[in-house]
Amino acid sequence: MHGRVSSASGYAGYFEGGHNYFEGRVGIGTSAPTETLEVNGNIRVANNADILGLDRLVGSSSLNLYGDAAGGPDLTIALDGRIGQRQAYSSVTFNIRGQAPEKQLLNVKLSNGDNIFMVRADRVVVVTGDFFVNNGSKNLRIDDPLDPDNRSLVHNAVEEPGMYTFYRGNVVLDAHGEAWVEMPAYFDTLNTEPTYPLICVGGYAPVYVAEEICDNRLKIAGGREGLKVSWQVSGVRNEAYARDHPYQDVVEKEGSERGRYYYPAGQGMPEEMGTNYSVSAGAGEGSATKDEQRVDSAAARP
Question: Alpha-carbon distance 140 to 157, whole Å?
Answer without folding.
Answer: 8
